[in-house]
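Progress report, Aim 2. The chain analyzed during this reporting quarter is listed below.
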Amino acid sequence: MRTTWSLVVPLKPLALAKSRLSGAVPAAARPGLVLAFAQDTVVAALNCGAVRDVAVVTDDPEAGSRLAALGALIVPDEPGAGLDAALAHGARTIRRSRPGAPVATLNADLPALRSVELFRVLTEAARFPRSFLPDAAGVGTTMLAASEGVELRPAFGGASRRRHRASGAVELRPGDVDSVRRDVDTAADLEAALHLGVGPFTRSRLPLPLG
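Predicted structure tokens for the chain:
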């Protein structure tokens, strides 16, 4: 039987997110672009056949309203103690209603995400107790998965690829999943995502004067 995953997507308050884009995207445009990234990510995830539901952990009221309208469950960031705490809280929230459910985290900044590529990654993840997908730079992580009854144990930020591997999580190596690895932190990342083809919410925010 095919595993269907609950995804936990973390999202900072829009005004605080993506500060590394500040030199490339005007300050007034950045919150809307960050929200568009998250909207495209959530829509693609919900359209993936391996995904049961998506929980977005955020305290941003506008983002929560817009993403709930797309079908996401909104979970307040009650710990307020950083990314790993938010992800663990999201996983616990899901498992209160679905004990032992397979849970995976997914970055909110994947505007080129393809449902079919996410399906490929999650199908491979179902083979292991814990696994992760490195980002396009090969330093960070865009997805961490914990199968039924397994603790998530997130270790995000900076060189998270190394930390997740050291924690015993299996590094996934599915072919042709660039859209799942292409998170956006810098102007160069955004250019690469545009080359892959971003979703409709991000497209609606373009063109932007990238510096």
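The CA atoms of residues 184 and 190 lie 6 Å apart. The radius of gyration is 16 Å. These observations will guide the mutagenesis work planned for the next reporting period.
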